[in-house]
UniProtKB/TrEMBL annotation:
Documented EC number(s): 5.4.3.8
Organism, as annotated: Desulfobacula toluolica (strain DSM 7467 / Tol2)
Protein name, as recorded: Pat: predicted phenylalanine aminotransferase
Keywords of this entry: Aminotransferase, Isomerase, Pyridoxal phosphate, Transferase
PANTHER family in alphabetical order: GLUTAMATE-1-SEMIALDEHYDE 2,1-AMINOMUTASE (PTHR43713), GLUTAMATE-1-SEMIALDEHYDE 2,1-AMINOMUTASE 1, CHLOROPLASTIC-RELATED (PTHR43713:SF3)
Pfam families: Aminotran_3
Length: 445
């Protein structure tokens, strides 16, 4: 069969190109189950091992140079080893990494975020996106005195129990008590009527709607015109808080999607690029809500602590990264995203393919689906085998990307490298075309 021939050719090329990764995987698996401490890092036949990164590239132990369009799943925006971030970390950590007190670094980064993000009057720092969404949901419940939270099907908000047990593709929910999700409601993204109906029916018990302004890990599914405005009006009209989870989406604008679309939530989470490549989570919102943490305003403030919250070295790295992620930098990397999408659309047409490239700013997701994608159910229809083979084939061709077809750009990438990326994807699609013609002809024009 053509599928077996193509699969064998691509896998054999991968094994031949990355033998040291196999050796290191077989060593690591003795100490880390599965050989990867992030579930997303594992793929068959074995995960690639990276030695180091510099600028727009990562380098393997075999000595291969790969164009990096994963950028730590969105946590890196200026490429690897950015000199300003490196200098901030080096100079900062020489003074001591953490003092367990308020610091100047916390002040500078908090001030910058509050100046940029419309929904931020005040913020608090944590160490991951998962922590940020956990605490923002707790904040909403504490402030409103209500327990239920509504999320979007396909929306990803980390791995704490109450949101991990969702319908997101490939999330394993074993070990999560059934009771953890009793207060979680779900509706399809971009469904105006389902959102309004569910909010109205549960308003007396509903603390908040939590949502990504576009589905990020769920496939870069963009909101329909007027959808975010509709959610804002429905929540406001029914005395329900609106939370924007902008951990993934923040990079599209200096003020996140809420500034881009002009829709301001009550509470917001950010992370990833905000840490300059180091671990961070941030949540914040309107002053009257965030003041429930304020010792000056209440005798029993809501408790929120953590050994590494506001870790000074992270504050310094984040401030250095965000300071140079200004309007010009955002415009540049978003222009690269537009160039990337336009190049892909030309490739799809030339190869007679009816597949999708969902893009906003520096984020793009290819879907092997033959219709425009507006919800998570359509994302689930994307052909997994084609994603798997495309990923391995691109690695063989010097492109380091994410198995599910997600591409994340950095300011370190040039227009010439975008052309290179498009060409390598075009080569891969041509490599897969006989298989598509035989088994997936619904994807042909």
């Amino acid at each position: 069969m053509i599928e077996e021939q193509i699969e064998k050719k691509i896998e054999d090329a991968y094994k031949e190109k990355f033998p040291v990764s196999k050796e290191r995987h077989e060593q690591l698996i003795n100490y880390i189950p599965g050989g990867a401490t992030r579930s997303l890092s594992y793929f068959k036949p074995y995960p690639i091992h990276i030695d180091y990164g510099q600028g727009a590239y990562v380098y393997t132990h075999e000595g291969h140079k790969l164009l990096d369009v994963t950028n730590a799943y969105g946590a890196i925006v200026h490429g690897h080893g950015d000199p300003d971030v490196v200098r901030a970390v080096r100079d900062g950590i020489a003074k001591g990494s953490q003092y367990s007190t308020p610091t100047d670094g916390q002040y500078k980064l908090a001030k910058l975020l509050c100046e940029r993000v419309p929904g931020f009057d005040k913020v608090r720092f944590l160490n991951s996106g998962t922590e940020a969404t956990l605490f923002v949901m707790r904040t909403a419940r504490a402030y409103t005195g209500k327990d239920k939270i509504l999320k979007m099907i396909g929306g990803f908000h980390g791995t704490h129990d109450s949101v991990a047990a969702s319908t997101k593709k490939n999330v394993i929910t074993a070990g999560i008590p059934e009771g953890m999700t009793e207060a979680i409601l779900e509706v399809p993204f971009n469904d105006f009527d389902a959102l309004e109906k569910t909010v109205k029916e549960n308003a007396s018990e509903l603390a908040a709607v939590i949502m990504e302004p576009f589905l990020g890990a769920g496939g870069v599914v963009l909101p329909k015109p007027g959808y975010l405005e509709h959610v804002r009006k429905v929540t406001s009209d029914n005395n329900v808080l609106l939370i924007f989870d902008e951990i993934f989406s923040y990079r599209v604008n200096t003020g996140g999607c809420q500034k881009l679309f002009g829709v301001i939530p009550d509470l917001t989470t950010v992370g990833k690029v905000v840490g300059g490549g180091l671990p961070i989570g941030v949540f914040g919102g309107k002053e009257e809500i965030m003041n429930i943490f304020c010792h000056e305003n209440t005798e029993k403030p809501l408790y929120h602590s953590g050994t590494f919250n506001g870790y000074e070295t992270v504050m310094q790295a984040g401030y250095a990264a965000l300071s140079k992620y200004d309007e010009a930098a955002v415009a540049y990397v978003n222009k690269l995203g537009d160039q990337f999408k336009n190049g892909l659309l030309e490739s799809f047409k030339a190869n007679r393919l009816n597949i999708q490239a969902n893009q906003i700013g520096s984020l793009l997701n290819i879907h092997f689906v033959n219709e425009p994608i507006t919800n998570a159910d359509q994302v689930l229809k994307s052909e997994e085998q084609l994603h798997r083979l495309m990923h391995l084939s691109l690695l063989n061709k010097g492109i380091f990307t994410i198995p599910r077809g997600l591409f994340i750009l950095s300011t370190a990438i040039t227009e010439e490298e975008i052309d290179l990326l498009v060409n390598k994807i075009d080569e891969t699609l041509k490599e897969l075309l006989p298989l598509i013609e035989e088994k997936y002809n619904h994807l042909l024009l």
